[in-house]
Write a structure and sequence with these properties.
Blueprint: E1 2-4, H1 14-30, E2 33-34, H2 38-41, E3 50-53, E4 57-60, H3 62-69, E5 85-88, E6 95-96, E7 103-104, H4 108-121, E8 124-125, H5 136-150, H6 163-177, E9 180-187, E10 192-193, H7 195-201, E11 209-215, E12 218-219, H8 227-248, E13 254-256, E14 261-264, E15 269-270, H9 275-291, H10 313-324, E16 329-333, E17 335-336, E18 341-342, H11 344-361, E19 364-366, H12 373-379, H13 388-397, H14 409-414, H15 420-434, H16 441-458
Parallel strand pairs: 5-8, 5-16, 9-11, 11-13, 12-14
Antiparallel strand pairs: 1-19, 2-4, 3-4, 6-7, 9-10, 14-15, 17-18
Helix pairs in contact: 1-8, 4-5, 4-11, 4-15, 5-6, 5-16, 6-16, 9-10, 10-11, 11-15
């Protein structure tokens, strides 16, 4: 058998990536990372390439960074994750009602149902909504507890209104992962830690915690309008944050992942999705290889306002390009209008788009001998429909979807003119009926114990 496969490579040369890396390290050394906490600042030793400038900025020499996090490039890095994964997220304050299609404030029922459906879909990720029928603190904790009741792949929002909420969420994470997991968000363009996260995170040093560092610089607003200069800032923020955490807590696993987002000059908003967003994703795939990190393809972020919006066509383009570059993780599904409205139907449609992109990238298999016997056989019947080769191969040859419809107008009209949104909704209810998940009994008891404590404290 022969095979036709497509190829796509960015022309971001290694010498350019190395230049970006050098300039990012220079920014850390000359400008430094802001630590907005005197208590945390006291934990940083000033010697051997680390020093503190005025205004609480920690500066680190490039060779020290390479020693702690490097060496770069990570030439031995290989992505062992062969499975392509689809991620949902959002923790939105609004959602499309699964039954009425109206925009509303989410409830705990929406959180549980959306999580069950996404789990059954095979998705990973974070809670899609923040339940508005609970007090704020309980709502934040519920994105872990109520999701963990029905899934082992979808949970969490990483939103904390107090140190007490932070601690309860860490308790829940420890039950399921046997480690504390602490995310650090760097604040652009200040090259700064978030004060709340760093002050609460360092309390877990010595408890066997892991740290991850991310950011959200906006090109043209909180980062330079030049893509590669914006990338220098983004990398400086996350590498600077990661190396400081590693200095403070040498035993912790510390990961980092840079990103950058376009900014809309007309509306004054961050932009999810679209051609500029896809460009940023493509650049970051090459950067990820240099640093030995897995970049998530965020091509399912969108500015579309309703499920199935035409802007999602750009998601297919982005998914194809990133699949051809070897990306295996794709997000963030289920969000409309940045992350302001959650929709489980949107997640279902986007998952189908990813499957279509995978089908495209898988290429075309063919009989390399190109025998014409099948053609001569079918000339007698004037059709290839019933030929054994057609019956054997058509399901693998063609992309077949249960929600993307290829029927003619008359058949579509006869069947009630169902929209893509309606078909995705029907599939959502079908997945909801089929949901099955059982958590380990010990974990279940511990999660309930922690939740009861939270309810008593915050009700």
């Amino acid at each position: 058998m022969g095979k036709i496969e497509w190829k796509f490579e960015s022309n971001l040369e290694e010498k350019t990536i190395k230049k970006i890396h050098i300039e990012a390290l220079r920014l850390i050394e000359e400008t430094g990372i802001l630590i907005p906490s005197e208590n945390v600042l006291k934990l940083i030793p000033q010697d051997n390439g680390v020093y503190i400038r005025e205004k609480n900025r920690v500066c680190i020499k490039p060779e020290k960074i390479e020693e702690i996090l490097g060496p770069f490039p990570k030439n031995d890095f290989k992505d062992e994750n062969e499975e392509i994964k689809f991620f949902v997220s959002g923790y939105s304050l609004r959602c499309y009602d699964l039954r009425t299609g109206q925009i509303k404030k989410p409830t705990t029922v929406d959180l549980i149902e959306f999580t069950k459906i996404a789990h059954q879909l095979g998705a990973y990720g974070n809670a899609m909504v923040m339940p508005g029928d609970l007090p704020e603190e309980l709502s934040e904790i519920a994105t872990y507890k109520l999701c963990l009741d029905v899934s082992d792949r979808i949970y969490g929002a990483g939103v904390y209104s107090s140190p007490e909420v932070f601690d309860i969420i860490q308790e829940l994470l420890y039950v399921i992962n046997k480690r504390y997991e602490i995310f650090m968000h760097m604040v652009s363009p200040f090259l700064s830690f978030d004060k709340f996260l760093i002050e609460n995170g360092v309390r877990y040093i010595g408890k066997g915690c892991d740290f991850s560092v991310g950011n959200m610089p906006m090109i043209g607003a909180t980062a330079p309008v030049d893509y590669l200069k914006a990338l220098v800032l983004s990398i400086a923020e996350v590498i600077g944050g990661a190396v400081i955490l590693k200095i403070i807590s040498p035993e912790s696993n510390v990961s980092f992942s840079p990103f950058m987002y376009p900014f809309d000059m007309k509306y004054g908003s961050i932009v999810f999705g679209g051609p500029d967003f896809i460009k940023a994703n493509i650049i970051l795939v090459e950067i990820g290889k240099f640093y030995g990190i897995k970049i998530i393809g965020k091509v399912f972020n969108t500015m579309g306002k309703i499920p199935g919006d035409a802007q999602m066509g750009l998601s297919f383009c982005g998914a194809v390009l990133l699949l051809l570059m070897g990306v295996k993780n794709f997000g963030w599904g289920g969000m409309c209008c940045i992350d302001e409205i959650a929709s489980i139907e949107q997640a279902i449609i986007q998952n189908e788009i990813l499957k279509a992109a995978i089908h495209f990238v898988n290429g075309i298999e063919f009989d390399d001998e190109l025998k014409i016997d099948v053609i001569k056989d079918c000339l007698k019947e004037n059709s290839f429909l019933t030929h054994p080769e057609t019956i054997e191969k058509f399901r693998k040859t063609f992309f077949i979807s249960d929600i993307f419809s290829n029927e003619t107008f008359n058949l579509w009209d006869k069947n009630g003119r169902k929209s893509l949104w309606e078909k995705a909704r029907e599939k959502a209810f079908d997945l909801l009926k089929k949901h099955k998940f059982e958590r380990d009994e010990y974990e279940k008891r511990e999660i309930e114990r922690i939740w009861k404590k939270a309810v008593e404290k915050f009700s």
